[in-house]
Amino acid sequence: MTNLFDYLTWRGDLPMERIPLCPVDALILSALSYVHFGDLIPPEKSIPIGRAAQAYLALPPAQRGRCRCEEDLELLEALARSPRFSSLDLCRYEDRFIPQEETQFGAMTVLLPDGSAFLAFRGTDATLVGWKEDFNMSFLDTVPAQLAAADYAARFAGDFPGPLLLGGHSKGGNLSVFAAVSCPAEIRDRIQAVYSFDGPGFTQYLLSKPGYPELLTRIFTFIPQSSVVGMLLERKEPCTVVRSGQVGLLQHDPYSWEVVGGSFVEVESVTQGSRVADRALTAWLAELTPQQRETVVDTIYDLLSSGDATLLEDTFRPQNLATALRALKDTPSKDLLAVTDSLSRLVRSAAQAIRQDDP
After folding, report:
1. Which end of the chain is more exposed for a tag (fewer CB within 10 A), N or C?
2. Is the pLDDT confidence value at 129 over 70?
């Protein structure tokens, strides 16, 4: 299997002046947005990707910003060695994490040699707040990260007169589309492409905005063949299905996507399992009112965060599980009933979707 790292080995020495940005490059820059550079990228200044990567890697692990996975570190090392990326300037780095507002947002901009700019939006990180904000999308027309993305794009475009490209992976893909659609018409005219890599869809609130049909032919959505996240909620633009070397939910990992030459390895359609999961989740959400979805999400989040857990992995520590179990006693019975009823409906929806898929 060849992936993003093989692509960087194969094409990393070819500058973008010679071969312009392609969707694989857009996924690489989207993955780069997961890195918490902190003060390494000064406000209102730019720094080459190679220098930023080397500065981050030179820090002792305890002094670095949060790292999502080991592959992100490997990506930094590869970008620092790559003439194609190392000299590109990074600027306008923003990192916003406000638990009390259920906000997790990150973005950065890469200035390209042709005079355009790529705005990369961070996807969901490992924090409980990040995951809570994702689930809030199922019952809210907008979440804080979407509004932050729209504001980020509008502010940058107000200072930058050139062409714009936007992109992101997972929630970052959702944010890139939301930001593009929400921009004023004079800014939308400058948007050349929007890349969503396995990003969830939207409620009718965004799909009914005039900017969405206007940008429809410039929105490029890519999902792996067993996509679950990218099939959530609704969208109208077509999706390109990419082969992944992983299985099931693990295909959400961008480093598992297969690349040959300068392109993703495409397959005809998503798998049977992805279609079943999509039907089950769609039917399940249709059965729940927005208020019921909110109650379920808030109740589960309150239980998981009742201890000192801030990261998703922290919730499985014995002391936090014990705290969550003790918190059950103080949770209103009507809320617990809403959770159990919702989970029962999900099981029924899954069973119905499986039966519908049987030959």
Report:
1. C
2. no
